[in-house]
Amino acid sequence: MALGCTLTTVKFLLLVTNLFTLLCGVSLAIVGTVMHVRYSSINGLYAEQNSLLAYEALLAVTLGMIAFVISFFGFFGAARNSACMISTYAFLLLVLMVIQIGFAAGSFLQYEEARVYFLGRVEANFDRIFRSAGGADLRSNPAIARVQRLFQCCGKHSYKEWGRWLPESCCRGGITAGCKPYETGCVEQLEEYFVRSARTFGWLLICFTVIEFVAALSGCWLANGLRDEEAARKRVRFQRVPAGRVNP
What is the rounded distance in angstroms from the CA atom of residue 46 to the CA atom of residue 43? Predict the structure, then answer.
């Protein structure tokens, strides 16, 4: 099916924005996977499965996979010049956009309350581990060691809390001889991680929604153009049929 110059331009715009939609879906799924891995590393200090971070990681992976699947409707519909498939693509994108806007708003609105609760739980669990273990057992505690290595922090608020004998996980590069400890406490590092993750998730959803809006708009434009061209061809065929003959 040959397309006019305007529809060819719209089709090109749809393909470009749809490619970005696919890349957005992949990147969102990757971000969610990374968030889940990092969140899993602090389960020893924050054993909450229903936290904002856990929800955001799961949502990022789920929404990314949905966007990835939807993008194929756009590619196949554009390749076959199928108005029906492109309309379905645009509709699914609009539904996804509404969902993303809702989750982005929820992330920003619940951010402060979730941050305070998160830090309170981290500090309480840090204190619980310090009380339940001591000496060498505490310095080799796997939950604390894992967090200190991953987030490059030492102690709850400072490496000085460990006294003269610093655990290996507090030393830069894991080298205890001539140990150069991480100066930032783990509570401060985890707070920075929480703030960065929550805000990044919210802004990513907003940016991706803008791209998806352009793709959905292009899809609606192309689908309407394809229907108009099909209707025009039918009118031309009908007008060419001689009087007294029925157009098969």
Answer: 5
Pick from 88, 60, 61, 94: nearest CA to 75:
88
Rounded-to-integer distance, Cα 44 and Cα 91, Å: 43
In this structure, what token pair is assigned to residue 43?
């389960």
CA torsion 27-16-1-223 (nearest 10°) is: 80
Q: Tens digits of per-residue pLDDT, 204-240?
A: 889 999 999 999 998 888 888 888 777 777 777 666 6
- Structural domain span for residue 54: 1-81
Which single residue is written with the structure tokens 């991953």?
A: 150
The residue out of 58, 81, 104 marking a domain boundary is: 81
Q: The pTM is what?
A: 0.73
Residue type, 209: T
Whether residue 166 contacts residue 179, with contact meaning beta carbons closer than 8 Å, is answered with yes
**Start-end of H helices in 110-185:** 111-132, 135-139, 142-151
DSSP state of 171: B
181 three-state secondary structure: strand
